[in-house]
Amino acid sequence: MRCKKCGKKLREKEKFCTICGYYNSGNNEKDEGIEFRNSKDGLVLDDFEPNLLDESTYENNEEYDDLEEFDLKADSSGTKENEFFYKDEKYLEAYIGEDYKLIKKSPFNIYAFLLNWSYVLYRKMYVVGILGMVITGIVVLQKPKFLIAYILITMVIIGLAFNKVYIFLSKLKVEFMIKKLKDTDSFTIENICEKRGGVKVVPALIIYLIFLIIIFFSMFNVYYNKNNNTTFWTENSENRATCNSLVRSAYKSIEENPVTGTLSEGLCSIKLKGDNKEYDVYLKITNADKIIYLHYKTKERNLVYDKNTEDIQELAAKKVNGNITKEEEKDLNAKRKIEEDYYNKAKKSKEEEKLIEEKKDRSERKNYTFTKDEIIR
């Protein structure tokens, strides 16, 4: 049994021709003969005089040796593009959908121009759409001042290039499906192309919405962190400069409160009281057998000397012996607190500095340690 339209030999009970897709109704075995003729649509089979061509004709005549592997020709030009459109255009049209003729003929796609990457996703070009959105996101975050120019340029490029790129990619997908389904009838291939192609609204909206959310929060974080960083560096620069000035002032006042030893380092700690800041300033003095701490504090924006720990060992010895007065014991406790505060605030200063260097903290720094060279230079 052979196809009435192209002459392809059909399998038993096969109705649709796998070459031309023609539906063969009735019993072809009862057909008395067929005739080939040329037309602008390709080779066509018509009824002809009985016994003009029979089975033996196909088997013995070399002219028809390749009939079962018969391929329709595109046109006299024989180019690959024209052959594709002639032979497989119905599959391509099924894949693209009802806008096929418009997309094929129009050099500019107004929907792609207006909707940008969302239209690319709508046409199921997910890889191209996501890649484009990633590039857009990078530009937005890295070069926000060029955002408007970039969007306008992108809109024009997508509008101009979309139809050609979409037709090209659709061809590749259709050709792949045809090769994969080479043993399948034309009707089935066309249905598969229609299902695999076309448009999808919901996935496109979901992907594009996720993209917009990511861009929004990324921009928020960038600008928020930028503002925070600016505030952080401004505050810390001012705090460090103020603390350095206070420590140097304390060092210059040692002559008024003489102690035995050599300056080792200084420390400044900030206390917030409402909108105002108060400062505790410490100088660390070392000599042969002990470490002495001098404590200063701000009062009405003036640096005031508090006390030092030079006699702390003598007071501690008195307490052990039980001959310390209440005033001396109170003084001993205050000096021990100075030592403890210095140790804790110096440790805190190193921790704050480390967190800042590792970019793990952007809060206002409260403790600053200064070396001898930073103080006396």
Question: What are the key terms here?
Answer:
54% helix; 15% strand; single chain; 377 residues; five-stranded antiparallel β-sheet; two-stranded antiparallel sheet
Q: Main beta sheet: strand number and arrangement?
A: 5 strands, antiparallel
Order of helices and strands: EEHHHHHHHHHEEEEHHEH
Radius of gyration: 44 Å
- Low-pLDDT parts are 27-86
- Give the rounded overall mean pLDDT: 80
Strand content: 5-15%
Strand order of the largest sheet: 6-5-4-3-7
- Assembly type of the shown chains? single chain
The helix count comes to 12
The helix-and-strand class reads alpha+beta
Distance between the termini: 107 Å
Helix percent band: 40-55%
Tell the overall outline.
rod-shaped
How many beta-strand segments? 7
Tell me the layout of helices and strands.
Blueprint: E1 34-39, E2 42-47, H1 55-60, H2 80-96, H3 100-105, H4 110-115, H5 117-122, H6 126-142, H7 147-180, H8 186-196, H9 201-252, E3 262-273, E4 276-286, E5 291-299, E6 302-308, H10 312-321, H11 326-357, E7 367-371, H12 372-376
Helix pairs in contact: 2-7, 2-8, 6-9, 10-11
How would you characterize the overall build of this protein?
Helix 6 (126-142) runs parallel beside helix 9 and helix 10 packs across helix 11 (326-357). Among the domains are: 80-199, no CATH class; 261-376, no CATH class. It is built from 12 helices and 7 strands. It has helices at 55-60, 80-96, 100-105, 110-115, 117-122, 126-142, 147-180, 186-196, 201-252, 312-321, 326-357, 372-376, and strands at 34-39, 42-47, 262-273, 276-286, 291-299, 302-308, 367-371. The termini are far apart. The strands form 2 sheets. A 5-stranded antiparallel β-sheet has the order 6-5-4-3-7, with helices on both faces. A two-stranded antiparallel sheet has the order 1-2. The protein is α+β, with helices and mostly antiparallel strands and 377 residues long. Strand 4 and strand 5 form a beta hairpin.
